[in-house]
Amino acid sequence: MAGDARAITRRGLGISVAALLGLAGVYVLALAYTPIELRQGPAQKIFYLHVPAAWSALIAFSLVGVTSALYLWLHDPRLDRFAAASAEVGVAFSAVMLTTGPIWAKPIWGTWWTWDARLTLTLFLFFLFIGYLALRAAVHDPEERARFSAVVGILGMLLVPFIHLSVYLFRTLHPQPVVLKPSAPSLPPEMLRTLLISAGVFTLLYAGLVTIRYGLAMLEEARDEAAEAADARA
Amino acid sequence: MPETLRLILAIAGKDIRAELRSRTALLSAVVFAALVLVVFNFARDPTALAAIDLAPSVLWVTFALAAMVALNRAFTVEREHGSIDGLLLAPVPRGALFLGKLLANLAFVGTVEAVTLPLFVLFFDVDLWRALPGIVGVTALATIGFVSVGTIFSAMAVRTRFAELMLPVLLLPFMVPPLIGAVQVTSRLLADRPLSEMLGWLRLLALYDVVFVTLCTMAFSAVVDE
Amino acid sequence: MLAPEPPHNAGYLVAAYIVAPVILVGYLGMLWRRVVKVGRADGRADGRTESS
Would you say A118 and A153 are in contact if contact means Cβ atoms under 8 Å apart? Predict the structure, then answer.
């Protein structure tokens, strides 16, 4: 089993490195081959990192919710292992989002923080991830830990639409959704292209990091089992 | 169906009677709420902001913090007395068990809120009385929301090492939508705004209650059963 | 009307473009270090030498 786990972590590393190379490509694309937005200036290009990071964080979170629900139904420990991996990786992407967000907001809106839909939601995702991971750290029995985490994962997933609704009811100051309008995206084609490529790279990076983290969990479980067996023999 | 209802009321009654005997959760939460109100009073500049503008936020932050104190105490007392184990051995449907505990917790938190409200009116000299029915209504709606999630989380937190820290860390994000809704509705009630301005928020509160009470009732078994 | 110049805020761009990969690569490094550490402990316990 440890051999499989090591293979998984190596595959994850390969995917992550490929994604990072892709990220370098995105940098070249964003800095050299994408036009500067007239009203917002060069700082607008933070958009090509900030938005894909937010999407990755949201993917990470949704998968925690989905695998949590599946775990409570199927009781497969692999689902629990995946949920934990996705939560940790989600924290990393949320951190990127929560740092690039203010760095983008300051030159554009003159303030470091805005309680707009995207930033607020990601802040909540961040706190939910942290709570989820804190709970996992505080419960020792693996089966109990899996059950409790799954409940938090599901409840958290259902909280997200309510946060979104609350912020929407507040009528925020975030710019109108430029990409996902039903008629046609208002972004010029080069910007849209760069954004989508960046989103692809970030998704790939998510996949690579989760794979490593999943393999690491397998390795840690194997080590703990071996240690217990050694204790039992002694 | 009536059998289950009786069961739920019986479980709630047992918890409420236990709490009435020791009164520890109620008293600590009420004292805590009073202290929070006092701190808020000294923390604000009366010339800068009218009491009525600050009132909804102060009231709801106080309610939220007091609710957490009450929830924590309620489950800690139960863990010390081991009373839940007896119930778990009996073939009690876990959903009914949850709803019974929810009712008992609602009774505790509701009592704390009922005592806090007149204190709030006293300390902040706010005229609440004409808006009172609306305020009671929105308080009920919001409280059901966060006490339902609080009940299931305290059942989990009590089984971890840092229970007193784990409950707020888990619960606070879940308290935000009911809190936002409650503050928005309360401020409009105090300003005598028409009902139409509050409908969106009231619907949010009601939907939250339906979704989370249902979900927590279904998920309770995953928390208490091996 | 003459076309206005875009604002000069490239400093923020540089800051963000540095912070983001630092976090991501840093996390990757942290993960991989944990993998290597567990691998070493495992090898010792089994009494075998690790070849990666």
Answer: no
